[in-house]
Specification:
The chain contains 12 helices and 14 strands. With 389 residues, it is α/β, with parallel strands linked by helices.
């Protein structure tokens, strides 16, 4: 099997950590270690996977049995853990987004560039059946030139409860955009093959965070206490992105908004279009013709539902390690562009005007602030969320 002989450690033993651990196990990898501040999480992980567990990531990354590390902690702690793992000679898969701020993401990228280790970022929706089928059709030229993408990740209600790390700007770096909007944004940029971005315009709103009726109905808002907690992150974002080649992206992301829920992803091309729900197995192709009579042609493609984006992503990670080569997808460079667009959306919202994106060299980014998050933040990583991202 692909992962045979590769020892994997998980940092952050909540829901995402267990999801990755099960996937690695099924792919033949060895889940040998886990780290989390919470004793109960460590005990549960050790019981399920027979792994050695640690309180902090510092002990895990120097475990001789650990070849690779998967990071599933709150965003603020991605940098110190990823940097420590790479410097210890481990390969790393860090969950999205790359970091809680652009500056932190740049420091991760600078470390990864100097490291011999493989470093991937967890954007699993790229590997869903819908995107795999789109990619194959696009490679055949079916869509012509891609012109515009409508990317939606919108909930009618679904604000994580105040008191969770999701609504703490120091831990998350932002709200709905960094939590769920990042999936839609990454998928749009991935679809357009990470084009040169010339202009970003966006508005971030904080509207529903203190209203209990908009708490997440699936239980993640059960610690809701609007009067006792401060809510300072966005719960919805609207953005428009222009590229150097004239392609455009419209983005809607929301934890809560008074409209129907949507994970609708629409791709326009000069010859055909496509639409599907983000992360779904199926895709619909939209065309028009005049053969016989003027008509619309809608084609539905149905993929294998047993093949998930998470499993495909983890397989790519293990395959890259086994082959001793850098990954062809989910790269640090791609994740850094996603982070730059996110930063530009927030800057645009603050300035009230469109913002440009600068792309300094990674070495320059590292030199602007050589102090890592590990040095600035003495507190250890927080417990990973049990919410699936």
């Amino acid at each position: 099997m692909i992962g045979t002989g590769i020892g994997v450690g998980i940092v952050g033993l909540g829901g995402m950590g267990h999801l990755h651990a099960r996937s690695i196990d099924e792919l033949g990898g060895d889940v040998v270690a886990g780290a989390d501040l919470v004793p109960e999480q460590r005990d549960r992980f050790a019981s399920e996977f027979g792994a050695t567990t640690y309180e902090t990531h510092e002990d895990l990354v120097v475990d001789d049995d650990v070849d690779a590390v998967i990071v599933t902690t709150p965003n603020r702690f991605h940098e110190p853990i990823t940097v420590a793992a790479l410097e210890a000679g481990c390969h790393v898969l860090v969950e999205k987004p790359l970091a809680h701020t652009l500056e932190s993401a740049e420091r991760i990228a600078a470390t990864a560039e100097q490291s011999d280790g493989i470093c991937m970022v967890g954007f699993h929706n790229r590997h869903a059946g819908s995107m795999a089928m789109f990619g194959e059709q696009h490679a055949r030229g079916r869509f012509g030139e891609l012109t515009h993408i409508e990317a939606n990740y919108v909930r009618r209600r679904g604000v994580p409860g105040p008191g969770s790390w999701f609504t703490d700007p120091d831990l998350a770096g932002g709200g709905a955009l960094l939590d769920i909007g990042v999936h839609a944004l990454d998928l749009a940029l991935y679809t357009l093959d990470f084009p040169e971005i010339t202009e970003v315009s966006g508005v971030a709103r904080t509207t529903f965070g203190t209203r209990e009726e908009y708490a997440d109905p699936d239980g993640f808002g059960d610690n809701w206490d609007a009067e006792a907690e401060t809510y300072e992150v966005d719960d919805s974002v609207s953005a428009f992105i222009r590229t150097a080649d004239g392609q455009t992206i419209s983005l809607e992301a929301a934890w809560a908004t008074n409209r129907e829920e949507s994970m609708d992803f629409r791709i326009r091309g000069t010859e055909a279009g496509a639409q599907f729900d983000i992360g779904d197995t199926d895709i619909e192709l939209l065309e028009a013709g005049t053969a016989g009579v003027e008509h619309y042609a809608d084609t539905e493609l149905t993929g294998d539902p047993s093949i998930t984006g998470y499993a495909q992503q983890d397989e790519q990670f293990l395959s890259a390690i086994a082959a001793g080569r850098q990954p062809e997808t989910n790269t640090i460079e791609e994740a850094l562009l996603v982070q730059r667009v996110i930063d530009a959306i927030y800057r645009s919202s603050e300035s009230g005007q469109a913002e440009a994106i600068e792309m300094p060299e990674l070495e320059m980014a590292a030199e602007t602030d050589p102090t890592t998050e590990t040095e600035r933040d003495p507190e250890p990583e927080a417990e990973a969320s049990t919410r699936l991202e």
